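Hi C.,

You asked whether I'd gotten around to modeling the 756-residue construct. I have! Everything is below, sequence then structure, no commentary in between.
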Amino acid sequence: MKPPEPASPQPKFRRDYSPPSYWVDEVDLRFELGEGSTEVHGKLTVRRDPATPAGTPLLLDGEGLELLEVQLDGAALGEGDYTYEDDTLRLVPADERCVVETKVRIRPETNTELSGLYASSGNYCTQCEAEGFRRITFHLDRPDVMSIWSTTIVGDPARCPVMLSNGNRAAEGTLDDGRAWVRWEDPFRKPSYLFALVAGNLSCHEGEFTTRSGRAVRLEIWVEPQNIDKCDHALGSLQRSMKWDEEVFGLEYDLDIYMIVAVGDFNMGAMENKGLNVFNAKYVLARPDTATDDDYEHIEGVIGHEYFHNWTGNRVTCRDWFQLTLKEGLTVFRDQLFTADMTSPAVKRISDVRLLRTVQFEEDAGPMAHPIRPESYIAMDNFYTATVYIKGAEVVRMYHTLLGAEGFRRGMDLYFERHDGQAVTCDDFRAAMADANDRNLAQFERWYTQPGTPTLRARGTWESGRGHYVLDLEQSRADLAGHPDFIPCLVPVRVGLLGEDGEALPLRMAGDTEAPYERVLELTESRQSYAFELSSAPKAVSILRDFSAPVRLEMERSREELTFLLAHDKDAFNRWDAGQTLAEHIILDLVEGRATEVDRAFVDAFGSILSDADLDGSLKALAMALPPSRGLAQRLPSVDPAALFEARERVLTTLAEAHASQLRATYDAMAAKSGTDIEKADIDARRLKNACLALLAQLGGEALDLASDQLAHATNMTDAQAALSVLVDAGGERATLATAAFYDKWRHDPLVIDKW
């Protein structure tokens, strides 16, 4: 039977969720990989839900499948015993338990959607999240149906010497006709979106990890043969991820083998299929001459992210796709913690907030604004958004801020104790956090239900007669078309006060027996005030430390106060943010005609960053960067791109002119320290060196000679790309020759050409 015409998409609503009428306890698959087409034999062990009346049809999802055969409990069904229309196979089991077998034909070679099973560049690969498995064979293709899976793959050993799937290798052999076969068995229940199959001509980079309980886990990274020399960093990243998850969250890997496949034609970035992660090659392959320091750190973070999904996404998964942030927001937060521990917490936090502000805040303010847990969708693929992932991670981080690291760990432990092997909701996660810490977190649900970015307005007042510093906080949100009025959320606001000498002041409130130097205030109403008992007025308030909530902060602060925070704040994020806010004011004043010169205090403060021995090179490089134009544009009522560009360039040139000798001295010092290693000290040195080079290039002349020389003698891609970027920005014949030479050198390496 040929596949019917696809059905038109219909909206789905979270409120309409109901459990399935049938459950699939076991799935046994057999793939016959062939030229031009593949046959898939699916065997489902099905159980009717106790609440489902006898005679209720079993509805199996199947999209674009050529149906060859249907069996029910071993008996072949005729076309009158079932229907296949609107992407659904419908039949009526007579008993509470039954076995449904189907045989279908699919055509991976012509699957240009790259969803389901597809063939590209000679290899077979799958992508099943969110609803791709139905393009492989019939199934209840929804995340709350979790089953035990086994998979047999049969193929031509010449074309497919490697055939991989989820779980552990159980058996393999050769058929009488010369075809090879391999059987995989996964003992842990999983939904269909986590199924994976990869087959083709791939080479393996092997390793091992011993778990804390003493089990040896085989690690395999499979890549196209020409890339086998670029896997060392990925393997090390995987081993560090496994160790970190044991140490920080007590989570041990559960299978005998963990596999990563990296191919150039995987279009989803990376996918956490149980025991068999599939990656686009750019998130795995690295060698110093082809990958930058940012690439190395990003690879480690993505490898960690997909590994961490083994528990937050696989062992405990989503009840329905409205709960996507349950696994993605939580796992992004976990990979952020991991990267912070592997690199620099301050640099990582600043980088994450920059991304949130420039990408997610923009999404939250536009017509596509939606909550991290959406209420409806037509195509689920449209909700793999910055809001669900990045803002979702910030919401999880707020639990960590409110409960502390130990409280958050207690909540995670209870979450796994209650829900291992289940498909659950965001409410279940919130309940575990609340119950493990004896906290009422009912108001926290509003972060899941409301779109848009709240605005936090803060105002500090010194009441000398009472010896009180009063901090008034107010939360609101700009109107969003189609969304109801904003309801106040629980907003954790981390606060510190600085004295005249820049040191932290004790934050004593009425009734306190102790006076900590930092507090997390819990804003639950539209407006609240907090009074701190002090002997003298604070010099500055450090508010929203470590960016403790995903809000827009509005607080009137003089440039003197911002400069003071930039020089003295011990909170690295707020120190950086003070500099960014100061730079933002200066650039926007130039754009809108409120100033004609760059503020001298800002120029001087910039020099103090360069000379501050307490800041590492990566943090200095971040602090030296001006706010991006995209973020600045969000602050303007109307945008003149040329005026914005000119104002930003003017500030950069002023900084370069004022600190030219210091920038050059720093460049030379860092050049002497930076080699080709990817250790933190080397990375810090390269980042600071290249930040100095980029700023010096504002002056042209000698700096461009410096860039040309760096490009010619670069022994690593970080230095080469930084120098090339400087030359391209400068333009002219030098840029033309440099880009041509770079292309000629790297034209056979697709990942480097992406950089070019």
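If it helps when you're writing up: DSSP finds 19 helices and 31 strands in the chain.

Thanks,
B.
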